Amino acid sequence: MSMLPLILASGSPRRKEILETMGLEFTVDVSDADEHFTGAPDEMVMELSRRKAAAVAPRHEAALILAADTIVYDGQVLGKPHTAERAEQMLSELAGRWHDVYTGLTLIDTRTGRTISRADRTRVHFVEMTKAEIAAYAATGEPLDKAGAYGIQGRGGMFIDRIEGSYSNVVGLPMALLRDMLHEMGEQDA
């Protein structure tokens, strides 16, 4: 990467791990942007990632700000369930079916104000699940703070038999898309 410092506008441990896996050096500056927005799923994640990046950008004079927003979409946005009962309900709805995961990425070069936003979509298929499996998984606590009530990188991965698209998108940061965006921003060695 060039000499421009990369700032991740997110406190997500999964996003931090992905950036580390990519070999990128970065610091974290968590955004406090308003995350209320409705619209088509791809528009929603791009707009929310733009808001997050824009909220952090004024705090950094010469940096590249990276923000992301991920949603699980099954005809409606499936947020974090927060309770085991809601997690069980969401997982029952997803079982045996396809749904979509969208992530919006925004990069802002704070020197020039140049902004790039893109969205990625991955289709995810769940196996059929028994009520006992759903209850046992919800009881682990893993689904409670995850959009759609599952973590593909954790125990929830055992219920996913197919994906179409980027695995890292489902985790929360599509690596190939980020690589392309860094190249587009002129960060040639990303």
Report what the structure shows.
The mean pLDDT is 94. The longest helix has 16 residues. The protein is of the alpha/beta class and 190 residues long. It has a single domain, classed as Alpha-Beta Complex (Maf protein), CATH 3.90.950.10. It is built from six helices and seven strands, in the order E-H-E-H-E-E-H-E-E-H-E-H-H.
Defining key terms:
single chain; 190 residues; alpha/beta; Maf protein; seven-stranded mixed beta sheet; 24% strand; elongated
Task: Describe the SSE topology.
Blueprint: E1 6-8, H1 13-21, E2 27-28, H2 41-56, E3 64-73, E4 77-78, H3 84-94, E5 98-109, E6 115-126, H4 131-139, E7 160-164, H5 167-171, H6 175-184
Helix pairs in contact: 3-4
Largest sheet: 7 strands, mixed
Number of strands: 7
Highest CATH level, the class:
Alpha Beta
- In CATH, the topology is named Maf protein
Helix tally equals 6
Rg is 17 Å
Structural class: alpha/beta
Residue runs with pLDDT of under 50 for 5 or more positions: none
Overall pLDDT level: 94
Per CATH, the architecture is Alpha-Beta Complex
Question: Considering DSSP H and I runs of 4 or more, what fraction of the residues is helical?
Answer: 25-40%
Question: Beta-strand level of the residues, as a percent range?
Answer: 15-25%
Judging from the principal axes of the Cα atoms, what is the shape?
elongated
Separation of termini?
A: 5 Å
Element-level helix/strand string: EHEHEEHEEHEHH
> How many structural domains does the protein architecture include?
1
